[in-house]
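Fold this sequence, please.
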Amino acid sequence: MTLAAVAGFWAIFEYRNDLEIQRIKTALELHKYYAKEYSGKLDHLLTREQEITNRSLTLRLRCDYYSEEVAAGRLLETSLKLPNCAHISHDHLNILQSFNSQVTTKQREILRERIVSALSRIQSIDGRWVGGISLFFRSVIICVDRGNCDAETTIGLFAKDMTAFLNSVCPFHDRLSSENRIESEFIALFLLKYKVSKNIYWTKDNGRESLFLCTYLRDLEKKINLGSISHEEYYSYCD
């Protein structure tokens, strides 16, 4: 009887081990397919030149806003003097970060809206790419939810690209269909469910409060964190 029980337990262990290996393999196969079929489309959303322009614009707008707030007495200049904002570069990021402890939530909201508004004016986006990539990411999420893909492996392979996709697309949600917006929220919910680090995509910044750039995704994050809506309820809504 004891030997039979041990054999039974061992069979269950081997089955579970084989199942876990298969889940990891499925996640890897999905990522291989994504790298072949979709990563170029994600690059198409923002060219390298656009990405550099966006980062430079974001730094300049942040510098301009902090300069305005210092002049108005709403921020105190730190020991690291603000540079000429017209010539700011990534090398000055530590100066901007020196204001983190002073910047209020309201000031962050004002700055973020300025950045999103500026990005939406200088870029164009192709809805065909948005739809194709978002549907693929939905398939990846469903694979995890149904237990066919290993969650940890999937997050490791896809979380950064999912976050980059959302933050590239969200400034244009007014130009996209309601379905595109729901798909974006579905992807965001998945990242929140598995507690993806807010610094996976952004330059590490101790003052950063969210994984997302746009207000409507940040509002979703707040609802989840406050417990006013559960992941299950929101998944049901997105479906």
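The chain is about 70% helix and 0% strand. Residues 131 and 179 are 9 Å apart (CA to CA).
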